[in-house]
Amino acid sequence: MVRESRWVWLLVTVGVVLVGTGLWTLYRVLNPAFMILETQGEVYRVSGGEDAFVEVGDVLASGERLRTSEGARAVVGAGSSVSFEVDGNTLVGFEREPWSSDVGLALESGVVRATVREGGPLLRMKSGTQQVVTQAPATIRMSRKGDATGVLIEEGEARIDGPSGQTTGEPGQEVLMFDDGLVWPSNQPVADLLKVRWPEKATATEPVWIRGQTSPRATVRLKGYPMAEVQADEDGRFAVQVPLRQGANELHLEVTHAVGGTLSESIVLHTETGDILREVELQYEP
After folding, report:
1. Domains of the chain by start residue, with CATH
2. Mean of the per-residue pLDDT values for the chain?
3. pTM listed for this prediction
4. Contact criterion met (CB below 8 Å) for 160 and 170
5. Which of 95, 143, 164, 250 is buried most deeply by CB count within 10 Å?
């Protein structure tokens, strides 16, 4: 009787070990660690309010954040099907729900490019009050500055959830999102969004209007004489009224998008001859 009881306890123990091992293996499959695959420059783990230098092969736990210094770069993997390219001056956290295959990140500032390969899990990318959800295969580039977030859908489709509801993004689209709920999709790269309507005549007797279209809430600065600054509205429209001096007036219009990047355009208006020299110069700086 005693010998039989020992065998029973032995079988129970073996069974518990096997079940536990199987559950742990399943958990590890569903929740692969966030591993540092590449680093360049100074890259830090942020946990408990402290920064610690990380190297290739180090592992980040769910809830920990990664910080890169200026000019640095890191690549983080989550299993074999998900990778994140982290640019310099970026602060981003990585998240996993227990017993779920979903992968998540929370971008606080900077730029991250996420790739989910065929057969990969659901990806959730949070930024402020907005969340981008996508399924494999997909590649999403997300940037954040202040209360603005830019999302470039390079591959796949994405759903954007936020205070204003849901929006669907398609491949090639770039979407601007703001923490107050404004979502603005564009089929054209935000970096190229600048159309200026210069005055049709140049006169020193009354101010002229410079109107145009760019990205929502972009900062528009007019440099030269005089200087002026306005903010584009939620549709990207702007208008600047300026007086002109006698003679040649060289005007330099500079637009800084809410998510970063500056686009500029210059022109010369001549009040004495009425000429408008439309030798427009377009420049973009990331």
Report:
1. 31-187 (2.60.120.1440), 191-285 (2.60.40.10)
2. 84
3. 0.80
4. no
5. 143
